[in-house]
From TrEMBL:
SUPFAM superfamilies: HAD-like (SSF56784). It catalyses: O-phospho-L-serine + H2O = L-serine + phosphate; O-phospho-D-serine + H2O = D-serine + phosphate. This is Phosphoserine phosphatase. The keyword Metal-binding applies. It comes from the Bacteria. The lineage of its organism: Bacteria, Pseudomonadati, Pseudomonadota, Gammaproteobacteria, Aeromonadales. The keyword Chaperone does not apply. Its cofactor is Mg(2+). Its EC number is 3.1.3.3. Belongs to the HAD-like hydrolase superfamily. SerB family. Coiled coil: none annotated. GO terms for molecular function: hydrolase activity. InterPro entries: HAD-like_SerB (IPR050582), HAD-like_sf (IPR036412), HAD_sf (IPR023214), PSP (IPR004469). Keywords: Amino-acid biosynthesis, Hydrolase, Magnesium, Metal-binding, Serine biosynthesis.
Length: 335
């Protein structure tokens, strides 16, 4: 079948492709096959998933010499999803895909963790689990918002060493009443899909933790509300009902986040392939590199470029799409 003959809407594909369990994707056509490819994976998901993305993808596959086959279209977390198996993983193809503009989220991965087995997900908190930077909000209420947010932005883009940037920002909060923390905690907006992601992974026997350069006051709030297994964050020093402008204890920086993921996996006897790290800032990159799969969410360009997978069009429901893709598609193929 020529790609130009494929209906634009994925809901019409099953009728058109019913004559074969899988379909090889060529530069201008689909060809029926019964042999799955599992050397690498392409995951395409989004409400705008359409045949036009296959036509956009096919030349990139041909250019890099990557063979690919389509699994049946499915839907995860309410999002249409297409899993494509490849004969191998190509870093050049992954880079080429990131350079293109897509109406959906698309990732080329060497390995996909599976919800069919226990696993570990460690996530950042600020701008990942929640839709805000807590320190910026504390600073706004303390009257030093502009000074602190400028340092935060530079740190998240990798322009400043994280521990030093944190000390600089916290120092600006000296003398602020500790009740400000309660105000911020009461108004934390969760990232869309957070509850669904946590519930789905816990039902699958996964361990969930926060490793944050933010603060325990807010991470603890999320742990209690969501039933997270562990939190690792920084402690704001307090004296006489006011913030002292200092961080108590060791700072949770990029190295500490990576150690958290590695230690939790070892304690639970999990292979690296079943570990996932989710974050948005430069201080999440080492944690992502230590994980079997690193997922950037609404991330800075530096982080999108280095992360294995990047969520641009989706929130945390996109994590479910990535982790559920393989098992769901393979189940449909074996029917």
């Amino acid at each position: 079948m020529l790609l130009s003959q494929l209906a634009q809407a994925p809901t019409d594909w099953p009728a058109q492709l019913a004559s074969a369990p899988l379909w090889e994707l060529h530069i201008d056509a689909l060809q029926g096959t019964s042999h799955p490819l599992t050397g690498g994976w392409l995951v395409l998901f989004g409400h705008d998933l359409a045949a036009s993305q296959l036509r956009q993808l096919a030349p990139l596959l041909a250019l890099e010499g990557v063979q690919a086959c389509l699994y049946p279209v499915t839907c995860l977390a309410g999002v249409p999803l297409l899993l494509i198996g490849t004969d191998s993983f190509s870093s050049a193809l992954a880079a080429a895909i990131k350079q293109e503009s897509w109406a959906i989220d698309i990732c080329h991965l060497a390995h996909l963790p599976s919800l069919a087995e226990p696993g570990l997900l460690v996530m950042d908190m600020d701008s990942t689990a929640i839709q805000m930077e807590c320190i910026d909000e504390i600073a706004r209420l303390a009257g030093v918002g502009e000074q602190v947010s400028a340092v935060t932005a530079a740190a998240m883009q990798g322009q400043l060493e994280f521990a030093d940037s944190l000390r600089r920002r916290v120092a600006l909060l000296a003398g602020a009443p500790v009740t400000i923390l309660d105000q911020v905690a009461a108004d934390m907006p969760w990232m869309p899909g957070l509850q669904l992601m946590v519930d789905t992974l816990k039902q699958s026997g996964w361990t969930l933790a926060i490793a944050s350069g933010g603060f325990t006051r807010f991470a603890g709030e999320l742990q209690q509300a969501l039933g997270l297994d562990a939190i690792f964050a920084n402690e704001l020093a307090v004296a006489d009902g006011k913030l002292t402008g200092q961080v108590a204890g060791e700072i949770v920086d990029a190295d500490a986040k990576a150690r958290v993921l590695t230690r939790l996996a070892a304690e639970r006897g999990l292979a690296q392939a079943q570990t996932v790290a989710v974050g948005d800032g430069a201080n999440d990159l080492k944690m992502m590199a230590a994980a079997g799969l690193g997922i950037a969410i609404h991330a800075k360009p530096l982080v999108r470029a280095q992360a294995s997978a990047s969520l641009t069009h989706h929130d945390l429901e996109g994590v479910i799409c990535l982790l559920g893709a393989r098992a769901c598609a393979e189940m449909r193929w074996h029917r």
